[in-house]
What we know:
mainly alpha; rod-shaped
Amino acid sequence: MKAESSWAASVRSEPQADCEAYKKDLRRVFDRELVAAQRERSLKQREVAIAKEVASLAELRSELETHDRELKASSEALRKWCQYLEETASKQANDDEEIEQEK
């Protein structure tokens, strides 16, 4: 009889032990999934931040290219203006020489 009651107790406790082991395994899986989800969320936030930075850099590059074109155009205009002034100064000097020679 004692063997039967011992056997009955072990039969009852075995499913309970299996259930506890299953709960522990489930908790471990849940914890791992939670960590993975947090990492994924963090990565997504980084991706969004990087995408915003890339967009900002692209905008800045576009602005710099615009300013570069404007500077090149201004430089060309200044070069032409300097050339015009040099030609005018040269003509003025020639005219002054002619006037001096005519005197």
